[in-house]
TrEMBL record:
The lineage of its organism: Eukaryota, Fungi, Dikarya, Basidiomycota, Pucciniomycotina. This is Uncharacterized protein. It comes from the Eukaryota.
Length: 122
């Protein structure tokens, strides 16, 4: 998924960053780095979107699928964190992925403790 943006947008005066003579303040302009960060974020979020669509269909979500989904998310986040060949993702996104990985590990542990999950997998 790639995001495309046109020319830098002019902000309305209500944002407090517009000067009639000078235009918008430079700090509010969207840069190429911002676009690259948004593209990296979209790439990281893609599996979450696909899994959400899959479990949102009425009658298709099963308890036994939860661990498979958690494994997919865990694998995706782990590969994003350990990707040292490129600058992808940037450090801020890599840290966010670490937090997401901790959360998926927490939920994975909770599924092992659930009697419903044991019955579903039985």
């Amino acid at each position: 998924m790639e995001l495309h943006f046109g020319a830098t947008q002019e902000y309305p005066p209500m944002f407090g960053c517009h000067d009639r003579r000078l235009g918008t303040l430079r700090q509010y302009h969207i840069t190429d780095a911002d676009i690259m960060l948004a593209n990296d974020l979209a790439e990281i979020l893609q599996p979450f979107y696909e899994i959400t669509l899959q479990v949102s269909i009425k009658g298709s979500a099963r308890l036994a699928d939860v661990v498979v989904f958690i494994d997919q998310i865990t694998s995706h986040l782990s590969s994003a964190i350990s990707n040292k060949q490129h600058v992808y993702p940037p450090p801020a996104l890599r840290n966010a992925c670490r937090g997401g990985l901790q959360l998926t590990n927490k939920y994975y542990t909770l599924t092992n403790c659930s009697p419903l999950y044991r019955v579903a997998m039985g």
